[in-house]
Amino acid sequence: MSSIGQMNDMYKQLEEVMKKCDNLSQEIKIVKGQTSQKYLKEIKQIKKTHKEEVHALKKKIKDLKDKNNKLYNEVDRLKKTIR
User: Fold this and answer.
1) What is the C-alpha to C-alpha distance for residues 39 and 36, in angstroms, rounded to an integer?
2) In the predicted model, what is the mean pLDDT of the chain?
3) Of all residues in the chain, what percent are helix, strand and coil, respectively (each to 5)?
4) What's the mean pLDDT in 18-30?
5) Looking at residue 1, what is its pLDDT?
């Protein structure tokens, strides 16, 4: 095979490798975009769940404070009846 023929073969191989690289780059972009969207959805869901949990805990704290106040009032009332 002549050196020109070898160079043509190498050039064709180079073109094939470059084409494969371009295709892989496109696939990477697609996968990266899909992954980003997936994680953004998951983060949004986690934030929503977290917000709901915080709300429920705040309500529970308020309820416990109210109950605590009622118990303090009852203790005070009972102390007054003992005296």
Assistant:
1) 5
2) 94
3) 95, 0, 5
4) 96
5) 59
